[in-house]
């Protein structure tokens, strides 16, 4: 009994001590600033602080990693020209000329389109200068030297909407466009330092090919609109043309356009010809579109009845161009833009930044896709930061901004590919895992693809664009405008081969007895996937063309394809079917082992978007 009482007393004293300690802790909490809620606040702070710290530490990490990855290869990018005993130099020179033509001719076409869309406020001088100047910067300071930059169709469309807005509000277009580029620069810098390029992994073929088909449709639309305008113009340069001459101009221009489209497309298929030697077929396939532009421009002078027919590009002397007389003074005019209009420029600035993020990243991605077997690291974050600086520079100089362009970027890499013979080793016997062999040459030697990763080809093609900028008044004035519109149609047609969206459209509407391919996916799944993609394409095209100033937002709808593909389509189609339908595209190289590779090893001609 006594021991039990002592034990109970001891437990009672312990409970009293615990109770006292608890009461003391409660009093301390209540006496502390903020009362008992401060405990939850501290807990929340402890949770948030690591997140904020990690975010702060990650700022600029992608850019820094890109610089660390590319810096050791910078000198090698220039020394690549002396590789393989001069073979690399031959390939790089050929690629430089090819990409110059593939960049300059679209720049001229976009310049003529931009002239019409902005009512002469910007011309081909600005597009050539922008393409050449920024190309030099990309080749010298860019992270990925294979990436080709230039003025693209989407920015021409956006500048059209911006000009319409400035016309309605009475705002100076060039100055407001400069403020737009300032805002776009800010957004692009934020994207670069916050590592948003990590999201490139979500850019699948569904998004890229829908965007490519949109550009193809817009190219075709521009070609039709331009050719129709050949009947409408009453003044061609300094000549007044009566109605009957306008009819002749439109008819003759249409004939020239059709001849150019047919001949250029035919030459682009020259690699499959049985006529001629391989080097001749390669020249026809790779340079046919430029050769026919020069040839048909010369043919157009056969009609000598009226010097104003056919209508030709109106290229003023450089000293009289709108850029040297007005555009170069853009910084001075920026101060005259009202505060309200400066903040209104945030909207197109954000749209341009979204467009550039998508287009620039996809172009860089395609320029270094796995099939090219590029050895040196990528630089998505740093290149986006450099693009921000180039956008600011273009805006302040009164010229349209550039971004990575399709198809020139992947075509540049293809042009630098080479097929190298690797001697095949034949076994002569083995013992205990040790084998011997002799090298076999000739027809038994295997081939492998390599790519000459360099900065010289990009630098040369951009420099040639600057040279063309200086001599444009002496050369480009001989080109009929109908050939410019025909070139848009040629680009649209050449963008279709290799596009799986287009292939599936043909598959869906083909005769069931003659369908080939897609054995692993049933017809209904192919139909649903293609129908969804077609609805997206038509919807974005309708917004771009028919929604007025709201059409400037079309890049936002292009970006909306990414979450649509990642979250909605898996609920509509079986995941395994979706993986097949949206698998990574494989680049097709020439498969004829008997055809030597003279100019561009494995390079496909044409404009594949």
UniProtKB/TrEMBL annotation:
Where is it localised? Answer: Membrane
> Does Transmembrane helix show up as a keyword for this record?
yes
- Sections of the chain in a coiled coil: none
* GO MF entry, a single one: solute:inorganic anion antiporter activity
Q: Which GO terms describe its cellular component?
A: plasma membrane
Matches recorded under Gene3D superfamilies: Helical hairpin bin
Keyword line: Membrane, Transmembrane, Transmembrane helix
Bilayer topology reads: Multi-pass membrane protein
Family designation: Belongs to the anion exchanger (TC 2.A.31.3) family.
Name this protein carries in UniProt? Bicarbonate transporter
Species source reads Chloropicon roscoffensis
């Amino acid at each position: 009994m006594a021991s039990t009482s002592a034990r109970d007393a001891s437990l009672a004293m312990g409970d009293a001590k615990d109770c006292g300690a608890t009461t003391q802790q409660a009093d301390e909490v209540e006496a502390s600033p903020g009362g008992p809620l401060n405990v939850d606040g501290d807990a929340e702070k402890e949770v948030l602080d690591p997140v904020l710290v990690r975010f702060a530490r990650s700022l600029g990490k992608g850019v820094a990693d890109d610089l660390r990855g590319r810096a050791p290869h910078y000198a090698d990018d220039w020394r690549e020209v002396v590789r393989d005993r001069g073979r690399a130099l031959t390939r790089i020179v050929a690629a430089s000329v090819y990409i110059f033509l593939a960049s300059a001719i679209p720049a001229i076409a976009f310049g003529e389109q931009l002239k019409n869309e902005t009512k002469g406020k910007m011309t081909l001088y600005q597009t050539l200068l922008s393409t050449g100047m920024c190309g030099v910067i990309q080749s010298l300071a860019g992270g990925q030297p294979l990436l080709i930059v230039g003025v693209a169709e989407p920015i021409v469309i956006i500048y059209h909407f911006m000009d319409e807005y400035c016309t309605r509000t009475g705002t100076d277009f060039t100055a407001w466009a400069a403020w737009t580029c300032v805002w776009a620069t800010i957004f692009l810098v934020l994207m670069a330092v916050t590592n948003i390029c990590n999201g490139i992994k979500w850019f699948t073929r569904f998004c890229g090919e829908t965007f490519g088909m949109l550009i193809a449709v817009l190219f075709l639309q521009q070609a039709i609109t331009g050719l129709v305008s050949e009947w409408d113009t009453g003044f061609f340069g300094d000549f007044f043309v009566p109605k009957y001459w306008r009819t002749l101009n439109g008819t003759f221009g249409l004939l020239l356009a059709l001849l150019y489209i047919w001949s250029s497309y035919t030459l682009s298929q020259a690699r499959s010809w049985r006529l001629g030697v391989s080097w001749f077929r390669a020249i026809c396939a790779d340079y046919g579109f430029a050769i026919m532009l020069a040839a048909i421009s010369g043919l157009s002078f056969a009609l000598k009845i009226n010097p104003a027919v056919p209508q030709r590009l109106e290229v003023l002397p450089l000293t009289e161009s709108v850029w040297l007389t007005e555009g170069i003074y853009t910084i001075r005019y920026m101060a005259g833009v009202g505060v309200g209009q400066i903040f209104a420029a945030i909207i197109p600035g954000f749209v341009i930044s979204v467009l550039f993020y998508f287009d620039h990243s996809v172009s860089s991605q395609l320029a270094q896709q796995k099939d090219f077997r590029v050895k040196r690291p990528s630089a998505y974050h740093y290149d986006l930061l450099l693009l921000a600086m180039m956008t600011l520079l273009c805006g302040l100089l009164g010229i349209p901004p550039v971004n990575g362009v399709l198809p020139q970027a992947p075509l540049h890499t293809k042009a630098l590919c080479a097929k190298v013979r690797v001697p095949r080793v034949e076994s002569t016997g083995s013992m205990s895992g040790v084998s011997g062999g002799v090298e076999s040459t000739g027809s038994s030697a295997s081939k492998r693809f390599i790519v000459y990763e360099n900065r010289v080809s990009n630098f040369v093609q951009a420099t040639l664009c600057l040279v063309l900028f200086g001599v444009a008044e002496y050369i480009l004035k001989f080109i009929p405008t109908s050939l410019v519109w025909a070139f848009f149609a040629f680009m649209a047609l050449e963008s279709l081969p290799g596009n799986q969206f287009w292939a599936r459209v043909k598959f869906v509407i083909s005769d069931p007895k003659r369908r080939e391919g897609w054995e692993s996916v049933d017809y209904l799944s192919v139909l649903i996937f293609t129908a969804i993609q077609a609805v997206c394409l038509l919807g974005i095209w309708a917004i771009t063309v028919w929604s007025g100033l709201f059409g400037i937002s079309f890049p936002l709808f292009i970006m909306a394809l990414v979450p649509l593909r990642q979250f909605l389509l898996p609920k509509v189609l079986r995941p395994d079917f979706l993986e097949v339908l949206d698998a990574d595209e494989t680049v097709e190289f020439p498969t004829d082992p008997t055809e030597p590779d003279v100019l561009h090893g494995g390079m496909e001609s044409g404009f594949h978007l």
